[in-house]
């Protein structure tokens, strides 16, 4: 009985604190649906398709509104104008990273993606410098991607036009590009280390996009001690961190301070230079987490986009035929594509953009937070308030993209068939938190897809009309359904 009374008192205190906090915040934050104690607006936003729920709420509350994720207020930005005004026009203030408890528990604020403050600023600045030194956005990295694209083509030829699931091969190619930057090494596509790494990345995104992980992020203190898929995520990342540590230890044994070979070497040299600085952000733990960030972002997002891309191409064979006709006209059958060719291939360029727009890989981006109090559209948003940016609302804006729910490369073509840029194209987010590897990703998607279409006819196993492109999960990421196809050599 005593325990019951204590629980009732604790629950009453939590509800009272919640109601007081709600009342205090109401005069500052944008309006939104009335939250319930403890669970907040969980019933309104759900966990299976948050983007769809936010679009419905935006119809009632406008482009800037507040929802409660559990007991935590979160300001939602919906539509291009609101997202651009926050992330671009007020980029510094909206550059904070909101909490993501299931990852925060493992990474403890280290790395690039989930860090804040000086850790984020210094690690991001350093990583960008190293990636540029390693050739990102330049001819040197383009040549690596071209070489890897040829390896991918050879691996696809080995399927002998038989039905195959392309997921592992489409993950191995971008993973090898990142490996060449981080480890100055690549793996054969049959190497178990590579296949295991790629499989972990696929599984991590799948698990992170489930309703269970969204519940974990709302109630971390409760869910953490229950059995569930979060434990599998922890185990996967622990194994990946162990693999990275082994690579780092090998690098330490052969490190030449005057001749850095790759990302790890650059970081180790920076660590040595700052070893007497007790406040240094360049530690072994930060190195491992930063490498994991670059690895994960550079492998899984490209792999997932490629998987979606081939799925759309077998569902819409007329789109594939148009792209292949342009490839034949510009490149022929034997000259490998380069980034210089892109300006002469408007349809292929538009196709790649439409794949990214339509797939909407990270529907609501990762959570942001404001770094100081800010008056935004006549609302006072206090420092530390979490921000959710609906990238779906930008990428599927009907004013910019007629028929946004249809897959159509002409969304990026003008009336003359020339490529048409769009400010609404934000698959990499925008502002200070824009994806570090955007330039690398753009190169990979164009070169990999062009090489595949140049060398193969893509044959589905079922009638294209029966192909379902609906994501199997849509949480942190949008996960494509599993499928098979045949790669028929051209």
TrEMBL record:
Heme binds at residue 435. Its main location: endoplasmic reticulum. It is found in: Endoplasmic reticulum membrane; Microsome membrane. GO terms for molecular function: heme binding; iron ion binding; oxidoreductase activity, acting on paired donors, with incorporation or reduction of molecular oxygen, reduced flavin or flavoprotein as one donor, and incorporation of one atom of oxygen. Coiled coil: none annotated. It holds the Pfam family p450. GO terms for biological process: organic acid metabolic process; xenobiotic metabolic process. Keywords: Endoplasmic reticulum, Heme, Iron, Membrane, Metal-binding, Microsome, Monooxygenase, Oxidoreductase, Signal. It comes from the Eukaryota. Residues 1-25 form the signal peptide. Its cofactor is heme. It is a peripheral membrane protein. GO terms for cellular component: endoplasmic reticulum membrane. PANTHER family: CYTOCHROME P450 2C70, CYTOCHROME P450 508A4-RELATED. Belongs to the cytochrome P450 family. This is Cytochrome P450 2C21-like isoform X2. It comes from Erinaceus europaeus (Western European hedgehog). The lineage of its organism: Eukaryota, Metazoa, Chordata, Craniata, Vertebrata.
């Amino acid at each position: 009985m005593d325990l019951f009374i204590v629980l009732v008192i604790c629950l009453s205190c939590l509800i009272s604190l919640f109601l007081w906090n709600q009342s205090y915040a109401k005069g500052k934050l944008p309006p939104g649906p009335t939250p319930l104690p403890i669970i907040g607006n969980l019933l309104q936003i759900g966990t299976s398709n948050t983007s769809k729920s936010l679009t419905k709420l935006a119809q009632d509350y406008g482009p800037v509104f507040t929802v409660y994720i559990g007991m935590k207020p979160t300001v939602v930005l919906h539509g291009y104008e609101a997202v651009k005004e926050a992330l671009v026009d007020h980029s510094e203030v909206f550059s904070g990273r909101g909490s993501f408890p299931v990852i925060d528990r493992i990474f403890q604020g280290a790395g690039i993606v989930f860090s804040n403050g000086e850790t984020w600023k210094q690690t991001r600045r350093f990583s960008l410098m190293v990636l540029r030194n390693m050739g990102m956005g330049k001819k040197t990295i383009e040549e690596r991607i071209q070489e890897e694209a040829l390896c991918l083509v050879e691996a696809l030829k080995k399927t002998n036009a038989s039905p195959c699931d392309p997921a592992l091969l489409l993950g191995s190619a971008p993973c090898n590009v990142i490996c060449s930057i981080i480890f100055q090494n690549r793996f054969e596509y049959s190497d178990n280390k590579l296949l295991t790494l790629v499989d972990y990345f696929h599984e991590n995104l799948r698990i992170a996009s489930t309703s269970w992980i969204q519940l974990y992020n709302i109630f971390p203190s409760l869910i953490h001690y229950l059995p569930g898929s979060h434990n599998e995520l922890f185990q996967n990342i622990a194994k990946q961190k162990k693999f990275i540590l082994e690579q780092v230890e090998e690098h330490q044994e052969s490190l030449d301070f005057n001749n850095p070979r790759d990302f790890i070497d650059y970081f180790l040299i920076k660590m040595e230079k700052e070893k007497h600085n007790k406040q240094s952000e360049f530690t072994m733990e930060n190195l491992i987490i930063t490498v994991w960030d670059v690895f994960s972002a550079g492998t899984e997002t490209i792999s997932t986009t490629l998987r979606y891309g081939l799925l759309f191409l077998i569902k819409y064979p007329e789109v594939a035929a148009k792209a292949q006709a342009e490839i034949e006209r510009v490149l022929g059958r034997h000259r490998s594509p380069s980034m210089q060719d892109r300006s002469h291939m408007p349809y292929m360029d538009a196709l790649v953009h439409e794949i990214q727009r339509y797939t909407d890989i990270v529907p609501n981006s990762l959570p942001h937070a404001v770094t100081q109090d800010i008056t935004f559209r006549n609302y006072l948003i206090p420092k530390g308030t979490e921000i959710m940016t609906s990238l779906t609302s930008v990428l599927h804006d009907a004013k910019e993209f007629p028929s946004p729910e249809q897959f159509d490369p002409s969304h990026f073509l003008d009336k003359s068939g020339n490529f048409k840029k769009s400010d609404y194209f934000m698959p990499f987010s925008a502002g200070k938190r824009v994806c570090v590897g955007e330039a690398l990703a753009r190169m990979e998607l164009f070169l990999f897809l062009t090489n595949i279409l140049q060398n193969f006819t893509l044959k589905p196993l079922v009638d294209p009309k029966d192909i379902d492109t609906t994501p199997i999960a849509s949480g942190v990421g949008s996960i494509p359904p599993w499928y098979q196809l045949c790669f028929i050599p051209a």
